[in-house]
Amino acid sequence: MEDDAPRTSKADTRFGQGFLTDTWYLGALSRDLKPGRLTRIEILGEPVMLGRSRRGDTFALRDVCPHRAAPLSAGSFHLDAKGVETVQCPYHGWRFGQDGACAAIPSLTADQSLDVSKITVRRYPVVESQGIVFVWMGSAPASEPDGPPPNFPGIVGGSPKLVDQVVFDSHIDQAVVGLMDPAHGPYVHRQWWWRNSGSEHDKRKRFEPREHGFAMVRHEPSKNSRAYAVLGGQPLTEITFRLPGMRWEHVTVGKHQVLSLTCLTPIDATRTRVTQIAWSDHPAFLLLKPVIAAWARTFLRQDGDMVNLQNQGLKYDPTLLWIDDADRQAKWYQALKREWVASRREGRAFVNPVEAATLTWRS
Known about the structure:
This protein has helices at residues 9-12, 172-180, 185-188, 284-287, 289-314, 328-345; strands at residues 7-8, 23-29, 37-43, 46-52, 58-62, 76-79, 85-88, 95-96, 102-104, 123-124, 126-129, 132-137, 162-168, 202-210, 213-219, 236-242, 246-253, 256-268, 271-280, 321-322, 357-362. It is of the alpha+beta class. Strands 13-19-18-17-16-15-14-21 form an eight-stranded antiparallel beta sheet, covered by helices on one side. The chain is globular. The relative contact order is 0.16. Residues 1-13 have low confidence and may be disordered.
């Protein structure tokens, strides 16, 4: 267990530097990848082309043609006489299969013997699960997944009831810590429909280690959290965090469920794409969907605005003073990252450094 002495971010880890690899990141929602369309995104500073073939297959390639560096995502699908579908570069028509191997170079003549199959672009493993397209960002081009992406509880009620996306102007570390921080609510999220200025009181929550992360175990929501009132009944909630940057809240109200999932995808060292998705079979999401969506959008943008505001101080590279218990989750995040890197460097299984604990803070 950690002691109660304040710790600084610099002493604990290389906070705000580097990314986790050999892990799954949210690339897109399934509904956003249309058959026969190519999409460009950036993950960990790398250009990635996401595609869905006309047959429905999803795949991802490095979005740089090895010939003249044109983005393959600006090209199109090509169907040859044998029915083989490839991606065609918009510059000179070089064609690549879903495995990244070059299939054809139209400018070659019949007497030129270049083996085009030896020309490749990097392929990123892709899994489509629960309406999400996950991209495996390996530490090396030949890296393959060592397990599936997480399976989230509470994906009920059909298609998502809410999808929102915003870019935080920050490293993923700052974005993660900002979203999991339990003490900022009374100052960043002070709305009449959430909490009033006099509603702060002591919180006491139980935490347990979970796969590649930790969870605030299932409990009754705080009485000063008014938004839960729209669900009626006696809601119970559990909030889980998992590396590299996934946080979800699973609420049960009798037989009904609500899942609010937030996935953070690093674009580069200074930008993080935050995707928020909610599913529910609760009647409130049918009757009050526009209102709930507006609340969620407000919350996410308030968090983004504060993280962006924080950049004004971070540019001076200050020492950050973190305290227990309000900042313990941030410390766990640092410890989880260190163990992730160490376990891969040493070729051993990941050992979760988080120990069960009860944390208290005022908010």
